[in-house]
Structures are given as C-alpha cells and as structure tokens.
Amino acid sequence: MPFDLILRGGRVIDPSQKLDAVTDVAFSGGKVAAVGSGLRADPGTQVRDVSQFIVTPGLIDLHTHVYWGGTSLGIDAEEFCRNSGVTTSVDTGSAGPGNFAGFRKHVIEPSQVRILAYLHVSHAGIFGFSHRIMVGESEELRLMNPIEAAKVADANRDVIVGIKVRVGLHSSGTSGAVPLDIALQVADEVGMPLMAHIDHPPPTYEEVLARLRPGDVLTHAFRPFPNSPVTAQGTVKKAVLDARERGVLFDIGHGKGSFAFKTARAMLANGFYPDTISSDIHQLCIDGPAFDQVTTMSKFLCMGMPLSDVIKASTENAAMALRRLELGTLKAGSVGDATLISVKQGQFHYEDVVGEHLIGDKKIVSEGVVIGGRWWHPN
C-alpha cells in the first residue's frame, strides 16, 4: 500500500518502542505504516522534511475540559490541540449522565481531534465552575446519579473511558468521600477505571488513595499543601508509595489550583515521577498558570525529568491509563497520530498555582500535528 504521508528525517522519540533515533515515519490509510530510514515515496505521497524537529506519538492530554458551550469551564478542543500538539483530548467529567448526549453530539462527534471522556457521576457534571460562580457539584448528594451514569457509560463505550468524581472541601463540601464511594460503585458496575479529583480535606489524600483500585487515576497528584503527597521532611508519604505499588496511577492535572513546584521538586527528588502529565486545561487556567499541555510538560523538563520520560507520561503511559493501546505509539498499525515538537533553549518564565515562579532553561514547543495519518496543523 502506498504511503499517504512521510515525515522525513526527524528525531523520533517513541518510548513505547524504546526508540530514539533519526529516521522516517510513514502513514497510510489513517494508521502508522512504517518507521525506518529512507522510506520510499510514491507519486501521490506527501513528504515533509521534519529534520529540525522531534517526532513523537500523538500527545495525549489525560485531563482537559472541552465541553465548549455546554459548561462554563469548557474550551475549544481543536484550537487548544493545534497550539499544544495534542491529538487526543480526554475530557474529565465536564458532562454527567444528564447532559452527555449533548456533549457527544455537538462537540465530540464533529471534532477533528479525538475526544474521549470520563463521565461524571454527578447528573450534570461540573456545571458551576466560572469566574463568578463556584458550586461543588459533589456537595449535593441528590445530584449523584449512579444508575443513569452506569447506563450512559455502558452505551457509549466507544468514547467513555472511565468514571470521574471530584472530592474535597471545594467540590464535595462536608460530603467527604461519600461521592467517591458512589462513583466507585459505578466504575465497578461498568468495569471501567475511575479518575478521582482531590482538593482540600475532607477527605484526606490518604483516605482517597485507600479506596482506589489498580488502574484508577488520582489526578492533581502533585498538589500543594493541604493534601500534599509529601511530608514536611520532603519524603513521599507511605500511603502514596503503597498505592503506586498496588497499581494506582498518579496524574498531574495542573489546572488553576492543583500543581506546586515545591511538591513536584520533592517528588522528583525521591524518584517518584508522575505516571501521566496533563494540563487540566479550562477557561480559568488557559491564560495561566497552566496555559497548555506542552507548557506543563516543559515544567517537568526544567525540573530535571528526562525528555523521554516527559514524552512517555504524555503518550504511552496515558494510553495505558485509558486502556487504548492503539494510541500513544508509533508502532506499525497503530492510530496515525504524531506530534512534532522542538525544545528551545533560553530563559523561560513558569508559574505554579501558588504563585511560585521558575526561570527554566528549556521550553517544549509544538511545531506540527498529524491526525489520522494526515498532516493537520499548521498548513
């Protein structure tokens, strides 16, 4: 089969294949066709010289909010993904069983970018999150809708990858871990993983971790005090180490209030890398401090996390968390998505959610996107 597109001569970093080499990547029929040197172009093949760039599997942002127009925190997925090199945007609970049909019809299905979703166990998802209104959807237990959530998740398995719940003082008030227990019942019923948000106690970081199962995701895992995963002495809490040992996954979910350099430095110093790096992009953090996925990745690169591990946390590891192993890789036959990045050297300003500033010497920049085996952006 002739190739539709060849990316010629880039530095290909694909952690799923332990590959870091200057080579070509070819696409055909919407999938990765081959990776190798000197791949032959046919008369109809589009060839792009990408020798100045790094080619990675299509970036996966495991925590986004892209129910644009349906919730006040939603951003436009295509615009965000063009700027951030993301080919799969995973919406985490913007919609619940009461409004998922609209999210699917009006946003997911028309999108050129792949959108997958964690379905919120609350009836209308995260409905009260804006500059002026902050209503924790998990505060009111009457909004928990486990029966309909299970039905909707089961009926939409092609795009729903798990169940989402938010717990903490700001999102569940004095309900504590009760919404988490309800969401876990739904996840068990439909055989899907759970993603749990955590903010200020109650419940505690430890109480949430104790409930999570292998393959479940704790997002906002590197958050600031209170509910930080590190001790005052800078060590990783035992409950965190125990949870990782039994297979709980730790996601960044930067967002507006959930990532601190102090926490991240301590975790990395202890050799505890995040399983997945995600932006938690939404209307209240897209203009800072999160900005986008590549900026979030850049922060970890500047704190000493190796580039290959940063890429792995946004490709292979994210695909494993989603249980979609056809994503996050450039293996022949996989989904034909790729991201082109460059790593700029210089002085770059970064900020976390508590106002700490970091001057980093590197910045990851999105240079191009391939979706479904076709060059998508920029033209």
UniProtKB/TrEMBL annotation:
State one molecular function term (GO): hydrolase activity, acting on carbon-nitrogen (but not peptide) bonds
Sites bearing N6-carboxylysine, chain numbering: 164
Lineage top rank: taxon: Bacteria
What is this protein's record name?
Answer: Dihydroorotase
Cite the entry's keywords alphabetically: Metal-binding, Zinc
Regions crossing the membrane: none
What residues does Zn(2+) 2 bind to? 164, 197, 220
Give the lineage: Bacteria, Pseudomonadati, Pseudomonadota, Alphaproteobacteria, Hyphomicrobiales
Q: Membrane: present as a keyword of the record?
A: no
Instruction: Name the InterPro entries on file.
Output: Amidohydro-rel, Deacetylase_Atu3266-like, Metal-dep_hydrolase_composite, Metal_Hydrolase
NCBIfam families cross-referenced by the UniProt entry? PRK09237.1 (NF006689)
Residues forming the Amidohydrolase-related domain are 54-210
Question: For site (Transition state stabilizer), what residue positions does UniProt give?
Answer: 166
Pfam families linked to this entry: Amidohydro_1
Where Zn(2+) 1 binds, per the record, is at 63, 65, 164, 280
